[in-house]
Amino acid sequence: MANESRPCPCDIGDRFDYGGRGQEVQVEHIKAYICKPPAGTDKAVIVIHDIFGWQLPNTRYIADMLTTNGYIAICPDFFVGQEAWKPSNDWASFDDWVKTRDAGKIDKEVDVVLKYLKDQCGAKKIGVIGFCWGGAAVQHLMLKNPHLKTGVSLYGVIRRFADKHSLLHPTFFIFGEKDDIIPLEQVTLLEEKLKQNCKVDYEVKIYPGQTHGFVHRKREDINPQDKPYIEEGRKDMINWLNKYL
């Protein structure tokens, strides 16, 4: 089977049975999921989905978690209508598929979402988080977008931006110790390059025994051995956003 050759292990994990507390909106040419806290706030977080797209219940669960911590959370469709990856797809076609969805070419969409958050939601302090494909997108944005305050990259694919480390904003990098597509030597090299080139606050943290996707693709109730690390990763993400937003 061609699926035995998998360039990305993003199908590892659990699909949450979760409906979401927010609503879907149209932001110019982009569809998005947005959730707002009951009390007004001027703090917002853009949530960048993984290869499974903006409608994945797991990602909406994290967006809602941000809202329960006081943030407006918005998860736009950064594939802009193109199909998200499906677990049933042939992994042999993945490289061709991902070439048409470049994590480094989302600037137009981010600008549209930033304008919406400022004009329609009253947001003044805006951060970004992202998972896998979205984690790589976070690194890209932290290198160049002056309007974002901070970012959290969760198991972002390092090789997408392996030669770029001069971050503009404080950035937190989350990795799993046993991630099949992000070897620890890549993480070590990232740390070395950041130490040499980065002038802002950053942190790189490796979570013991964890695989790709653990923060949003594993359920605590059926992965008890991973529960402490799942919860720690989520808490660290929130604490970082609280610190810089």
State the main characteristics.
245 residues, alpha/beta, Rossmann fold, eight-stranded mixed β-sheet, 7 helices, globular, disordered N terminus
Which percent range describes the beta-strand content? 15-25%
Structural classification? alpha/beta
Taken from the alpha-carbon principal axes, the silhouette is: globular
- Would you state the CATH class? Alpha Beta
Bin the helical content: 25-40%
CATH superfamily: Alpha/Beta hydrolase fold, catalytic domain
What kind of sheet is the major sheet? 8 strands, mixed
What's the end-to-end separation, in Å? 47 Å
Q: Please tell me the overall pLDDT.
A: 91
How many separate structural domains?
1
Strand order of the largest sheet: 1-2-4-3-5-6-7-8
Number of strands: 8
The poorly predicted ranges are 1-5
What does this 3D model show about the protein?
This protein is 33% helix and 18% strand. The protein is of the alpha/beta class and 245 residues long. It has one domain (23-244): Rossmann fold (3-Layer(aba) Sandwich), CATH 3.40.50. Strands 1-2-4-3-5-6-7-8 form an eight-stranded mixed sheet, sandwiched between helices. β7, α5 (184-197) and β8 form a beta-alpha-beta unit. The chain is globular. The model is unreliable at 1-5 (pLDDT under 50).
